[in-house]
Amino acid sequence: MRRAIQERNTKETELNMIVEIDGSGQALVDTGIGFFNHMLELFAFHSGFDLKVKARGDLEVDDHHTVEDLGILFGKCLKEALKDKRGIARYGSFRMPMDEALAIVDLDISGRPYLVFDAEFTREKVGEYSTEMTEEFFRAICDHSGITLHIHVPYGKNDHHKIEAVFKAFGRALKQAVRIEGDAIPSSKGVLE
Prior knowledge:
By secondary structure, the protein is α+β, with helices and mostly antiparallel strands. It has a single domain (about 5-180), classed as Imidazole glycerol phosphate dehydratase, domain 1 (Ribosomal Protein S5, domain 2, 2-Layer Sandwich). About 35% of the residues lie in helices and about 30% in strands. The chain is built from 4 helices and 10 strands. Strands 1-2-4-3 form a 4-stranded mixed sheet, covered by helices on one side. A 4-stranded mixed sheet has the order 5-6-10-7, with helices on one face. Strand 8 (about 125) and strand 9 form a beta hairpin. The longest helix has 20 residues, at about 160-180. The chain starts with a strand and ends in a 15-residue tail after the last helix.
């Protein structure tokens, strides 16, 4: 079973997360940020991961610490659950239309953290979620899981649609990449670190 449990407690946040890669897309999410809850639920549905998240953060300051720290925690869970990455497809790509917006996500579970984030937002917030935190969330995932991730939103007018398309496309691309295809480590080097 590819599953991980992580917690993170700082002066700014108290977080608990359970990630089950081979789940059924069920999510039980409470971050204190409604739009972010919705995005994590959509990610779970489209990835097929089961996701349980309980977060208490300093939202009276803003949403930065909660969102970034959950990215850190998710990255750690993903790395733990994949272990040595034996048998995985490794690569995933998905193009997700959301009404007038399009998001393109390509990723490599390479062991090398790198984020290319090419998306612009015109609104400061969607609900109580800061749009700038989208990039920070995915950067934290990359840094702590060791994946290379390219996110491109070539067009769109509605920031809700653009961000939603990104989370859905990330879920679909990750679902492809973690799929078991055999028993070998998918690298000519024999290791993914």
